[in-house]
Amino acid sequence: MKIMNINSNTPHGEAARHARRRAAKTPFSFSRIVFIITMFFLFLPIVVLIFSSFNNSTSMTWSGFSLRWYQRLLSERELWRSFQHSIIIAATSALTATLIGTFGAIGINWYRFRMRNYIQTISFLPMILPEIIVGVSLSIFFAGVGIPLGLFSIYIAHTTFNIPFVFLMVTARLHEFDFSIIEAARDLGASEKQVLYKVTIPVCMPGIIAGFLTAVTLSLEDFVITFFVAGPGSSTLPIFIFSAITRRGGITPVISALSVVMILGTVVLTYLLRNFLKNIAAN
Questions:
Q1: CATH code: domain of residue 132
Q2: Is 276 helix (H, G, I), strand (E, B) or coil?
Q3: Which phi and psi angles does 65 have, rounded to 5°?
Q4: E strand or H helix that includes residue 46
Q5: DSSP-derived 3-state class of residue 55
Q6: pLDDT band, residue 26 (cuts 50/70/90)
Q7: Does residue 62 lie within any of the structural domains?
Q8: Is there a single domain that holds both residue 249 and residue 129?
Q9: Strand, helix or coil for residue 30
Q10: Do 130 and 260 form a contact (C-beta atoms < 8 A)?
Q11: Are 170 and 101 in contact (CB under 8 A)?
Q12: pLDDT tens digit string along 120-159?
């Protein structure tokens, strides 16, 4: 009983009791109503999407439960080829952007040199500029240097706009870095290379992994920039979906089935990565 009384007198206990009393008095408060309306508008399109993917008809009128659209999804060769292109480009561009962004962030935070502030400022331009401007400028650049539009040009474009995101996340991790650890490692005889690979990079690993995952996500979902730098036969999944909607005059149940599969895959992947990052942060 004493323990319960002590806990009830703590500020946390007082706040909890106050919140319970307030919730009991105002079950339909303004903030709760706004929250419910917001959630309704956010998730209603997803519910409609799931509904149409299991509908036997192409219209919104329910005509029976069916898996025919998921069966047709498996037979769409062009779709799976575009999906393969998206996975390859996302993985390679994210890996390249992670390497460049990580070493760039470490170099700018470690060393002092001329043009340092200028380089740090212009590195964020791809994040600030509208995507259509980045896409047009990259398309003009590829045409000027003679690089044909295709998977390679998409890879370069995705690497370009992913680098600032990795750079930002690794820099944020470095700002929390205790540089006395580096001094201690050097006092113990570690070379600069050993300090980099055995001290700095392991400490920055949560930021590096977060930057890599962000780069993969941005690459998979990008449409505007990819639209300007993609060539014949090199479409990614967003371009395929746009082309399918344009050709068929609207969203078909096959696209709805694809969207449901992607939503489920994203939820599962997010849950697994969340636990993975929590374990890394804990260690």
A1: 1.10.3720.10
A2: helix
A3: -75, 135
A4: helix 30-53
A5: strand
A6: low
A7: no
A8: yes
A9: helix
A10: no
A11: yes
A12: 777 777 788 888 998 999 999 999 998 899 899 999 999 9
- CB proximity list for 203: less than 8 A, separation 6 or greater: 173, 177, 181
Residues 47 and 147 in one domain: no
Is there a single domain that holds both residue 49 and residue 76?
no
**Cα atoms in the Cβ-side hemisphere of radius 13 Å centred on 224:** 11
Q: Are residues 112 and 219 in the same domain?
A: yes
Report the half-sphere exposure of 243 (CA within 13 A, side-chain side): 14
Q: For tokens 């706004």, name the residue.
A: 34
- Name the token pair of 79: 């779709």
Q: CB burial class (10 A; 0-12, 13-18, 19+) of residue 142?
A: buried
In this prediction, residue 99 has a pLDDT band, given cuts at 50, 70 and 90, of: very high
> Which of 71, 225, 269 is CA-nearest to residue 136?
225
Mean pLDDT is lowest, of 165-174, 222-231, 267-276, for 267-276
Placement of tokens 């001329």 in the chain:
114
How far is Cα 50 from Cα 245, in angstroms, rounded to an integer? 17
Containing structural domain, residue 8 = 2-53
- Per-residue confidence at 17, pLDDT binned at 50, 70, 90? low
The DSSP secondary-structure symbol of 196 reads: I
Do 253 and 211 fall within a single domain? Answer: yes
